[in-house]
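Ligand-bound model needed. flavin-adenine dinucleotide.
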Amino acid sequence: MSQVNSVIVVGSSAAGVSCIRQLRNGGFTGSIRLVDKDKHGAYERPPLSKQVLINPQLKSDDISLVSGEELAELNIDSYFGDKVTNILPDLRKVIFESGKEFVADAIVIATGGEARRLPIEGSNLPHVFVLRHFQDAINLRQKLLPGSCVAVIGGGFIGAETSASLSKLGVSVHWLNAAELPLSHLLPRELCEKIVANHCADGLNLITNCRINKFVEQADGSISILFSDDTETLNVDAVVLGVGMSPETPYFSDHVSAKVLNKAMGGIEVNESQETQYPGIYAAGDVAAVIQSDGSVLRHGHWQSAQYQGERTAASILNKSLPAKPVDWFWSDQGDLHIEMAGEILPTEQHLVVRHEGDWPVYFSVLDNRVVGAVSVNNPNAVRAAMRMIKNAVNIEPSQLADTDLSLRKLMRG
Ligand SMILES: Cc1cc2nc3c(=O)[nH]c(=O)nc-3n(C[C@H](O)[C@H](O)[C@H](O)COP(=O)(O)OP(=O)(O)OC[C@H]3O[C@@H](n4cnc5c(N)ncnc54)[C@H](O)[C@@H]3O)c2cc1C
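Prediction:
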């Protein structure tokens, strides 16, 4: 691509903000605009299902990703509270709901995703909430006072975190799951059982294997949940949906969408330099579907990956060598449980090694004497050690990992 003198970054979250920082760190002196439809500007999303629900004093500034002072120091033009309605990649033009237009040499699309709603009647009722934006968390916090009753739907991390946080707040929580065991599509089964038992002991009412037919609003605004198998109706003050997210890409024409969107999983297809098939148009973070060297396509939905892809995009715009891929890392805070995960947890039992260390066992996935994944609860050091093992492809016997007489610090050195 020819000389880049101006960049527009659409989306001021993990991917967008890491991109602007890295552009300036990398010596870019041209103009940078950071734009977002959210009037609250640049803030962290992970606290929305955790601290923001629990602490009524928290404001968006308390979870800010980049302060006004830093934006000024970095000489970034920010423009918040106006939605991008059209991106014209051929013209490298961005058009906003207000009618405003910006043109730049490079456009970085970091628009993340929107929370999914269930495709059933009543899914859009006023007291059926989702959690993706700061305002969502505030709306929920205002509705749910201690003593009220909520149904949280979804057996993934957002459902687990939201349930645990609301329970801490003194709300009576029904945690509804389509599966038999929440989190079991993400973590080793034995660990899920322990985590779920812990949540239930803290007062969550877990309902599994449920199929919801519809939500019906009552005269007082409360919600009745009707199940497909005609089991008893559940009445609650509010419902929270934690059923995943969809990449946010409504700003492309049909013609552009057909060219750039991944058909199987949605998201904007990019190469490993984060560039779309339109030169100068990049995508990073939750919205990006990254084509790997073997032709497969990966779309991540967690903070570290969004942050890293932002950095990678900046390097790509600056025509510098791309930063090395970090070992994949993720965390989840569920009440008093701090879960960390690295690499890939294989679904196969025979590759699982359990290390009984402290109150919570640590689980490793091991393939051909190499650690490929790990997960711990309230033991971040174990996952840090596993990340070193994964990164350096340390040769290790499963029996050594399980042996608590051998320290992980020693083992990670190989
Ligand atoms: C409640 C919650 C809890 C989470 N907890 C964790 C966690 O504990 N650990 C973890 O690793 N990950 C967690 N995540 C995931 C993590 O926050 C995301 O992966 C990360 O925020 C993705 O960053 P992003 O920059 O790609 O997109 P997003 O964070 O989705 O940001 C996209 C931005 O683009 C803006 N935008 C969208 N469309 C437009 C438009 N048309 N015009 C202008 N602006 C637009 C949006 O307003 C938004 O600010 C959590 C996510 C949520 C929602």
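The mean pLDDT is 96.
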